[in-house]
Amino acid sequence: MSFDERVTRQKGDGQFLISPQFPPAVSLGRALRQRRKEIGKTMRQVAFEVGLSEGFISQIERGLSTPSLISLYNLASALGASVEAFLQQVPHPTYSMVSHASERHGYSIEAEERVYQLLQRGFPDARLNSCITHMPPGYVSELTRHEGEDFLYLIEGEMLYEIGDRQYRLTAGDTLHFPASLPHRACNVGPGEARELWVGTTRIIPER
């Protein structure tokens, strides 16, 4: 599926538009590497600040891997830049106490990986943030950690979550709530796509 133009994708929760908001992995990695060198930071320093491995930072910069949405925002912060500097277009935050499935947009960094449906915050300065993530079979996220707390509700599929030194296998309808400061990652271990509702205190869309 091409992300050069908007397309409509059919999902179990209705149709939504996929927009080419995020750049391809190669150009994203190039921009992150250039910014890191401009401010004189090593990959080790950046990795420590954002809770990622140095090897994964290297893969991102070479366009071999792509960060999750939260990791991308953390990377921008560690590089002393706004996340807008690394996105072709920035999803503008809107505020509504009601979110209609038919009006949501999906955003992705790469065509075959995660697709995010960013959910509107109900009011300015809200502390909770949320999105629905679509993950293909075999998907494995990076091992990461960040401030705040995460709450996950698995809408569809089967996922294996590694939180600290423990593993949790979830199927549709199960939930997981944990301090996001613990190292964590996720793996789609089911035969089909998994859909996850994430609610957390980490702000992934900056206020304007």
- Uncertain regions: pLDDT < 50 for 5+ in a row? 1-21
The strands making up the biggest β-sheet line up spatially as 1-2-3-4-5-11-6-9
Helix content: 10-25%
| Count of discrete alpha- or pi-helical segments spanning 4 or more residues | 4
The N- to C-terminal Cα distance equals 32 Å
CATH architecture of the largest domain: Sandwich
The name CATH uses for the topology of the largest domain is Jelly Rolls
Instruction: Give me the CATH superfamily of the largest domain.
Output: Jelly Rolls
Q: Which structural category do the helix and sheet elements fall into?
A: alpha+beta
**Integer-rounded radius of gyration:** 16 Å
SS strand fraction: 25-35%
The main pleated sheet reads as: 8 strands, mixed
Q: In total, how many beta strands? A: 11
Principal-axis shape equals globular
Q: Number of domains in the coordinates?
A: 2
Please write the string of helix (H) and strand (E) elements.
EEHHHHEEEEEEEEE
User: Average pLDDT across residues?
Assistant: 82
Briefly, what CATH class of the largest domain?
Answer: Mainly Beta
